[in-house]
Amino acid sequence: MDQDLYKYLLILGDNSMILGHRLSELCGHGPTLETDIALTNISLDLFGQVRSYYQYAAKIKGEESTEDSIAFLRTERQYYNCILVEQENTNFAHVIVRQFLFDAQHQLLLESLTQSQDETIAAIAQKSLKESKYHLRFSSEWVKRLGDGTEESHQKTQEAVEHLYPFAHELVTNTSIETRMNEKGIGTNLDDLKEEYYKTVIDVFEEVGLVAKDLKNRFAKGKSGQHTERLGYILGELQYMQRAYPNMQW
Amino acid sequence: MSPEIKLEDAFQARIDDEQKIEPKDWMPEKYRKTHIRQISQHAHSEIVGMLPEGNWITRAPSLKRKLGLLAKVQDEAGHGLYLYSAAETLGISRDELFDQLHTGKAKYSSIFNYPTLSWADIGAIGWLVDGAAIINQVMLTRTSYGPYARAMVRICKEESFHQRQGYEIMLTLCQGMPEQKAMAQDALNRFWWPSLMMFGPRDSDSPNTEQSVKWKIKRKTNDELRQQFVDITVPQAEYLGITIPDPDLKWNEDRGHYDFGEIDWEEFWQVVKGNGPCNKERLKARVDAWEEGAWVREAAVAYSTKIKNNEVKRTA
Ligand SMILES: [Fe+2]
Ligand SMILES: [Fe+2]
């Protein structure tokens, strides 16, 4: 099997799955019905993308693998999502800033992947791009609302930025797999996204007086399978049924 | 005859004639109050109902099931929205309605005070709880208050999808491994009686029924609806190959209906009064979400005020 392609699909899919999972934890607990519905929508979109990536990954992997064995039956070190997306739903400001930092990259990444030499990836990107544009509009508007709302909301959002922004660089830093996939014309060179990514993010932050110090958390190595302690708990819930009742149809 | 009585007669005549009452029409105060109570109770049930099922979203056994469940719970939020909007047409705000829920003044369907203990409960809720809700709600699509009736039409379509999705989860479990089928049976055991309770007290103990029939909020009594539910559901359980936990359940040839055992009314009233297994945590989850969201809602209002003021300045 093509190991690089397989892992690349996991990098793409795992981000959507772990972020989708975090958002799904909030379903029924949002600050308003409208935001509850909107965040669930984003979660639904992300899980829809996850299925496409994992179905393709299962095909590459062959054997008996399925979208579900890929989603639920790996161990911690075999998940390749960025550290950012496994961060907790500390409060609504954290949820929104995490989403915004992700969406701003996701849209650029998908735009670029629509040109992938791999037709399946290009097709998934094409379909997901529309969704991610909507997500970015939603999250950036909320960053502004919270950043320029009340003193309290500004302070909470600033605190979220300080916590989350140091993880953002991982989204635009190539791993060796991403570099190789780019050389084959399949993947995106994340270096090419950097400038626009930071511009998008900083413009929105500056518009509402949020300060992002140029800090990079050097332990943000999720794409190499090195996670925070949080991921284990996410997987504990995510995998519970598949682990407790192996080899069954649901 | 006083003008008030004339108005009431004309009002009743319109209802008898199957005309819809619209928000701007004159209506007796009691009609307005009854509708606020019933529609908001219904809206609260939709959003509290998100919690027991939401409990399994992060643990759904497959990606497909996770998407199905997420979408279902989201639909319930949408139902809550339509219904709060319908209640608002009667001159009460959503904030006031939430306040009634949070202070325990308003009720919601007791079924949501039962816990979801296994994945099969998600199937059982879709099959039985959405199934019971549909029977009530189909009747309400023809209720006299226009906004309520129209909300029901939209909602019913989605509820029947939920019911099919729930039944399909049960079917998959029942056709699966023995422990899956056991899980399905256990869920039926726990949700059967609470589902029958969803139709409310016996007709003989239901003081509101007569007035509700007059206003066409109710076209069938609690007992009639409950019977309808049992008659529909028994063959579905048989098809699944699981057993309804009622030794008195049997087909009555003369009546052309199933006979069934007595509901534990003591349990029913206890749960209504707040002493069910999850009443406190359900309410707490709603109150927490509301209180923790306060600063977010305030920020949104402050921001939109700023934007509006800026626009005024620009155009001035
Ligand atoms: Fe509903
Ligand atoms: Fe439903």
Describe this structure as you would to a colleague.
Chain A is mainly α. Helices cover 64% and strands 0% of the residues of chain A. In chain A, α4 packs antiparallel against α5. Chain A is globular and about 55 Å long. Chain B is mostly helical and 316 residues long. Chain B has 13 helices and two strands, in the order ααααααααααββααα. Chain B has helices spanning 3-16, 29-48, 50-54, 63-88, 94-102, 119-140, 146-174, 178-197, 209-214, 222-240, 265-275, 279-292, 294-315; strands at 250-252, 257-259. Chain B has a two-stranded antiparallel ribbon. In chain B, a hairpin with a 4-residue loop joins β1 (250-252) and β2. Chain B starts with a helix and ends with a helix. The chains are: A mainly alpha (250), B mainly alpha (316). At the A-B interface, α2, α3, α5, α6 and α10 of A face α3, α4, α7, α12 and α13 of B.
